[in-house]
Amino acid sequence: MTQSNKTYKIERTCTVCHHVEKLFVTKREAAFELFDIDKTLGQKCSNCSSTTFTTAYERPNLDLDLLKEWAINSDLYLMPQDEELLLADEQYLDMILQVLDNITIPDHKRDLLMDALCVIVYDNTNEDNSQRDDQLKKRVIGELNKRQDKLRLADDWIMDYIKDVVYPQLDFDRQNAV
Ligand SMILES: [Zn+2]
C-alpha cells in the first residue's frame, strides 16, 4: 500500500466569497516553505476571481534530519522566518546541541542556533512568563558556558535586549565576550 506523504495542509480562503482551496505538501516542504501557492492554486479565487486571501499553514515539528538539512544548507529557511524564535524550544534543545557539536555548518546557521539557546534562557528568565522553567534555564546556561567560543562568534547576531538578560547569568562578563 502506498500512502501519500503530502499530509501537511495549507488552506487558502478567499476574503471576498470565502471559498476555501487546499494544498497538501510534505513535511519537508512545509518546514522550509518549499511550495508556491499561487502557482499551484492559481493567483485568483477559482470561484469569484478575487486575488485577496487569508492563508492558514499547518506547521510541522522539526526532527533531527530536518534540522541538520536546514543547518547545512544556507538556502533553506524555516517557516515562520523568525528562525531563532522557532528554534528556541525545549523540544529542539538536544537536536540543536547535536548539530552544533557534530556537524560543520555555515557561520550564519551556527549563530542562529547559539541565538536560539540565548532566547531559551531569556524566555525562562522573564518573570512575566508563567511557564518559565528554572531547570531548563540552568541547563541551557551550562550548555552556553561550554560553548563560549561559539557564543563569541555569534555576539553580533544576538539582540542587545537578549544579551542584557542572558550574559550576566553566564560565566563571563559582557566585556570579555565581545
Ligand atoms: Zn472568491
Stretches where pLDDT is under 50 for at least 5 consecutive residues are 174-178
H-E order = EEHHEHHHHHHHH
The count of DSSP E runs of length 2 or more, i.e. the number of strands, is 3
| CA-CA gap between termini | 57 Å
Can you give a write-up of this model?
The protein has helices spanning 27-32, 37-41, 64-72, 83-87, 93-102, 107-123, 134-146, 148-154, 160-166, 174-177; strands at 8-14, 20-25, 53-57. Mean pLDDT is 93; it is low at 174-178. The longest helix has 17 residues, at 107-123. The chain is elongated and about 60 Å long. Helix 6 packs antiparallel against helix 7 (134-146). Strand 1 and strand 2 form a beta hairpin. The chain has a three-stranded antiparallel beta sheet with strand order 2-1-3. The protein is mostly helical and 178 residues long. The N and C termini lie far apart (57 Å). The chain has two domains: 8-57, no CATH class; 64-177. Zinc ion (ZN) is lined by residues 14, 16-17, 19, 45, 47-48, 50.
List descriptors.
binds zinc ion; single chain; 10% strand; 3-stranded antiparallel beta sheet; 178 residues; 47% helix; 10 helices; elongated
